[in-house]
User: Which sequence fits this backbone?
């Protein structure tokens, strides 16, 4: 696990808060923005993407697609994406799993060599199952020690056909293949084999985006799909708010027994973040909705005076776990988060990171092969005077995890809060504005 060095990165003083009472508008979804960008690059005509998220992950995706021949202009209000002739390029994936795993199959549709590199922490992110799948499809792809950099020798033509792969380490292996599959000569039949798939809502998100682009995807079984060969015609689209990024703000209401109002909530079960309201209600919160327009509604969540611990299967909502763990730290008892082993392969080993950082505020945890137990304490350090530094591990979810802890723990600092720019480019400013509202 990569650990931040305090003397090599900035330390951000996390604000405390007795009881939050604020309202926010959520930024757009990174997951949807990057899916739409890839589909727009493969479309038959120009596409307007309204309200895209402009953050590090999406900027890296745009830069990569531009290097490969796609023309992209615009701003945070609207992007115009005009497809071009795909060509090999040198791509920097940063810490973005979507860039790494979505553009590996797409690179085979380009002409010439594509080399994909990334930030050092990304070297630990799983990639081998996707490399093996692409190799079985006849794509010339090579890697060093099952890690980056990747080199894909694109010919502009992929036969496609049938592929089995173990995507239990990341659903992005499936999504990446799906997005490019309509441009394969025979399409692609994909079957997952192995341990249960994590984060299946993201696969459904990919299928929905493909269907929006005119691709008649077929679900042949619970882990079995066929993406037919066809043209891609993504219409002009508006990117939904990112419900996962609602997590830290909803958590703020939970741990302070306060209220947060979100003005642009959208009901979309394909976004894992949609589960926050259900989970936090189980933990004692109350919610209220008010219709605002046909696309969004206003959602208010008020946290309880005492947080009820949870017993929860997290296989499909792994990205929510760091936020849930921060709330569980202040619960009245032990919480059990099951089926979270795939979190070891994110920007860092999130499970070990959570345990390490919670120990700093005297919250004990237990970690098994697949489950995480957090022994909550509403007042873990009532007499704390010493400074505590929560490492972010170059992981945006761990950075916001630290900010949530800081609401109740005085003198707490978060190392390298700037890593939140991955999906929330103005998080420090937005967080302080919400806390002080």
Assistant:
């Amino acid at each position: 696990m990569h650990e931040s060095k305090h003397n090599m990165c900035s330390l951000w003083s996390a604000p405390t808060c007795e009881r939050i009472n604020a309202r926010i508008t959520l930024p757009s979804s990174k997951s949807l923005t990057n899916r739409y960008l890839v589909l727009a690059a493969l479309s038959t005509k120009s596409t307007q993407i309204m309200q895209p998220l402009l953050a590090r992950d999406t900027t890296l995706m745009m830069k990569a697609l531009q290097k490969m021949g796609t023309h992209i202009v615009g701003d945070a209000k609207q992007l115009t994406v005009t497809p071009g002739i795909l060509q090999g390029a040198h791509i920097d994936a940063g810490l973005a799993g979507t860039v790494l795993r979505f553009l590996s199959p797409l690179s085979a549709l380009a002409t010439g060599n594509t080399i994909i590199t990334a930030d050092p922490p990304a070297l630990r992110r799983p990639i081998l199952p996707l490399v093996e799948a692409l190799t079985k499809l006849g794509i010339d792809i090579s890697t060093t020690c099952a890690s980056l950099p990747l080199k894909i020798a694109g010919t502009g033509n992929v036969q496609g056909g049938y592929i089995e792969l173990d995507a239990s380490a990341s659903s992005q292996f499936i999504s990446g293949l799906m997005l490019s599959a309509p441009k394969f000569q025979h399409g692609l039949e994909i079957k997952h084999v192995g341990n249960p798939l994590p984060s299946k809502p993201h696969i459904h998100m990919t299928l929905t985006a493909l269907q929006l682009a005119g691709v008649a995807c077929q679900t042949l079984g619970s882990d079995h799909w066929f993406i037919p060969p066809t043209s891609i015609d993504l219409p002009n689209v508006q990117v939904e708010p990112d419900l996962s990024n609602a997590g830290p703000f909803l958590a703020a209401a939970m741990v302070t027994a306060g209220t947060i109002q979100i003005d642009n909530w959208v009901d979309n079960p394909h976004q894992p973040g949609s589960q926050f309201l259900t989970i936090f209600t189980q933990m004692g919160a109350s919610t209220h909705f008010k219709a605002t327009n046909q696309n969004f509604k206003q959602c208010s969540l008020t946290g309880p005076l005492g947080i009820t611990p949870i017993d929860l299967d997290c296989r499909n909502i792994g990205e929510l776990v760091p936020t849930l763990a921060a709330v569980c730290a202040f619960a009245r008892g032990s919480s059990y988060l099951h089926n979270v082993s795939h979190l070891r392969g994110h920007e860092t080993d999130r499970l070990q990171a959570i345990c390490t950082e919670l120990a700093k505020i005297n919250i004990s945890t237990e970690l098994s092969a697949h489950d995480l137990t957090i022994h909550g304490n509403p007042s873990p350090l009532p007499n704390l005077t010493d400074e505590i530094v929560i490492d972010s591990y170059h992981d945006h979810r761990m950075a916001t995890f630290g900010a949530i802890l800081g609401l109740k723990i005085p003198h707490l600092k978060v190392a390298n809060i700037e890593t939140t720019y991955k999906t929330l480019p103005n998080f420090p400013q937005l967080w302080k504005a919400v806390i002080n509202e």
In short: The longest helix spans residues 200-212. Confidence is low (pLDDT under 50) at residues 1-8. The chain is about 30% helix and 25% strand.
